[in-house]
């Protein structure tokens, strides 16, 4: 079963526009071209923009971005083939991705999850020179999708780390399919709010705890080691940033994550409380 990978010229154009300094100056805090407007065609995207603003504002936006089409045309000619290479990379590794997702489904207590129903938008980032992709998810009860932002010069690698990044985002969607698990994360984050706020760096407590939970399995944890032969990252004894905390928790939860996966156990309060216990012991 193929992944539902979408390379939308217009969605890439809107992303390109958002990286333009003049556009950002015009909409510094309320960006009407927010990436949640991804749809399968241009008409649907404009309809979403009109719903979030109004027809007059949408018309002004169209007029504002029209001069950028020529510049984008050159960019698109350069990167469209590049995005196709990434699409082929993910499709070629879809069977391994599905196998790993079967493990995450069991961890989340979700029996039926068809990844072919989840659109995956590939977006070229003209402003990034990073060595890794960036991915994120959008979820509502009626619609979910993933977005993969790919630095414009980054070619598909001969390793599988980008696949593990994709699974990390699917993991977040699976958590939202289990209302009890989602609620448990929120409850525990609220219970230890003062502790988590201290280390979260402005990230909402529930989101921070969920990030640590997912990362304890993938891409920093045991699930990555099991399927992608990823080395468990070295850790700092006193983590500060989100990435450092993700690596720290993944390393300390390795054996427990292994037990849950190999024993086909679903994530529960015991697992989450162990993460919080590690935070309490390590937070400065």
Automatic annotation (TrEMBL):
The protein in question is named DUF2268 domain-containing protein
